[in-house]
Design goal:
By secondary structure, this protein is mainly α. Helix 4 packs parallel to helix 7, helix 5 runs antiparallel to helix 9 and helix 7 crosses helix 8. The longest helix is centred in the last third of the chain and has 27 residues. The chain is elongated.
Amino acid sequence: MARTKEFDPEAALQSALELFWQRGYEATSMADLVDYLGIGRASIYATFGSKHELYLKAMDRYAETRDPSLLAELSQPGPALPAVRAVVRRFAEEAASPELRLAGCLVTNTAAELAPHDPAAARRVELSWDRVETPLCSALIRAQAQGELPEDRDPRALARMLFVLLQGLRVVGKASDDPARVRDAAEQALALLD
């Protein structure tokens, strides 16, 4: 007879996500996971697989909870540029926030730590990045069609520039305690939309 799990796998996955997000992949040992999740090593392996598989599942969870809100923000009816500006400013505020900045973004952290040598992590990073860049591009195309963005602007190139800025805000915000650095960069980028 199979034993019943004595823990909630969803809560354990959320806890693993939080630990990986705080420490990164390499700095989180299996012993750390056992301690933080409060479940045995064998249960972790039986439920999630290896540490690497658990990390990838944590990335998937992160994407499920983070990415859809951006699409919702950028696809509201009406003028599109105010929504784009609000997203960029929100990213800047999060990057400058004392409570949020030190964790950064799990995807950005993974891009720097694992993506160069881990194809599975790199695929997840690319998918997440597409879920940021594509809605930005769609909003800028809409803005141009509605006369908010000059005709001589390239919405795809602007979306890519803003996407790279958003990722940079997260990296710089995590490492710098000068909030003006990320806020000024965001405002200068937004000036390009005028």
